[in-house]
Amino acid sequence: MNAIRAASETSIQAEVLDELKKSGFPTQRLDEAQFFISAFFSRVAAGDLELHTASEWAGLIAGLLDFVQQRQPGRAAVRVFNPQAGHAGRSVVQIATDDMPFLVDTVSMIVSARLQIHAVIHPVVKAVRDASGRLQRLGADDGAPESVMHFEIDRLADEAEMAQLKTQIESSLDDVRASVNDWSRMRDQALAIAADLPNRQLPLNKDSMQEAVEFMRWLADDNFTFLGYREYEVTTRDGQRVLAAVPGTGLVIMRADEDTRTRPV
């Protein structure tokens, strides 16, 4: 079966490259295209190879290569569109971003909340970009890994629906980036709390305290996805004991807008 799949991939890749050449794709970019075609089809499920004709695959890849040419540093590039021809009447979501965990799961969760996903293709390639985010080289050994995602989904009716989905995906991927960037800090905080718990005066017996310490360490041992963190302190305001957020301690989804509210203890 693996030999058959390899032969099928080799055949479709050659056909797609030929179609690109016939379509007038810039000759100076054919090496880039050949590299990307190989990376792209290595992530296409065997059953999806016949989703499109070689000509349709070539058009899709040419458009995707144009799309990844420019990306704002530190942000995901996202587009949602309805292809003009082919693609079984589906809409397409395409994303280019720095490679990190949770990307495909996050986008899939957003889309599948109201639409069916028909295909997901997710090559990870190395890219070199200049300071403005313009692509310089694709597939270079000294490049940074980037995720290029292609989703085929139920067709969206109009521009407003496509714009709404694009905004949702961009916002969620911003949260993913913040979570990944702050992950080590949140894990370190969990471990620091675990180490400090035995030193605190708490209404817990020795066994309960040890259980709490072990639980915090278990969370930090890749058994929990940290999405936010903020410290609170017990203080007195207007004669009432309250929990007040400590400014500057928020991380990930609790970072952007520091909580100025207080909560009764």
Task: Write structural notes for this entry.
This protein is an alpha+beta fold and 265 residues long. The chain has six helices and eleven strands. The strands form three sheets. Strands 1, 2, 3, 4, 5 and 6 form a six-stranded antiparallel β-sheet that branches. A hairpin with a 5-residue loop joins strand 4 and strand 5. Helix 1 runs antiparallel to helix 2 and helix 5 packs across helix 6. The longest helix is centred in the last third of the chain and has 38 residues. The radius of gyration is 24 Å and the shape is elongated. The chain starts with a helix and ends with a strand.
Spell out the helices and strands N to C.
Answer: HHHEEHEEEEHHEEEEE
Number of helices, where a helix is a run of at least 4 consecutive DSSP H or I residues: 6
State the low-pLDDT regions, or none.
Answer: none
Radius of gyration: 24 Å
Characterize the largest beta sheet: strand count, sense, and whether it forms a barrel: 6 strands, antiparallel
What structural class do the secondary elements suggest? alpha+beta
**What is the beta-strand fraction?**
15-25%
Helix content: 40-55%
- How far apart are the first and last residues' alpha carbons, in Å? 64 Å
* Number of strand elements: 11
Overall mean pLDDT stands at: 90
How would the global form be characterised? elongated
